[in-house]
Amino acid sequence: ETGVTQTPRHLVMGMTNKKSLKCEQHLGHNAMYWYKQSAKKPLELMFVYNFKEQTENNSVPSRFSPECPNSSHLFLHLHTLQPEDSALYLCASSRERSRSYEQYFGPGTRLTVT
Amino acid sequence: SQELEQSPQSLIVQEGKNLTINCTSSKTLYGLYWYKQKYGEGLIFLMMLQKGGEEKSHEKITAKLDEKKQQSSLHITASQPSHAGIYLCGAENQGGKLIFGQGTELSVKP
Fold first, then answer.
1. What is the maximum alpha-carbon separation in chain B?
2. Of A2, A45, A104, the CB nearest to B98
3. N or C end of chain A: which has fewer CB within 10 A?
4. Which of residues 57-96 of B touch A (CB under 8 A)?
5. pLDDT tens-digit profile of A33-47?
6. What span, in angstroms and rounded, lies between the C-alpha atoms of B29 and B66?
């Protein structure tokens, strides 16, 4: 238990569906992150929020839309996904967006796009 | 762009044996993190190394950072089945983006 929770843990969706992933941290952190982990590939940083402001978008397709209503919650809205988007989506948080602070990860959402 | 290369990619050891995992960067390292991941789950933070020559230990796991070699090593002494999992190194590149190695999968045979 790292203090970062993610729901749902597993999600199967069709290419025309719209769904959302939720992340919540109970650590009092100010930075939150979305990562994508595909088989046989390094972990890929998708989005970064620092003090509720999006500070990084690493060329992520617009079918992924993040939302950070407050420092404790982070969402990833999904629509018209492709099968290649199937992956483990990990949320993380840190005290601030700085290399001085380690990140704490949630358990991930296993997404399958059919 | 900066990359992190981990070696070996996978490792099978007998319980009680020592082992070392390496993480080599293609460019200057500004600190390095080690994480452990059970298959299909989130990453567990192990250690953070910020200065060249720094060495940290947690239980039977020791990590070192060699800035000149742009490399970090993770050493496990007297391995146990509980050490099994995927070990990932991560570092911030010059642009401040956190990047990860591809992971080293460790299996420990009882």
1. 43
2. A45
3. N
4. 88, 90, 92, 96
5. 999 999 878 899 999
6. 9
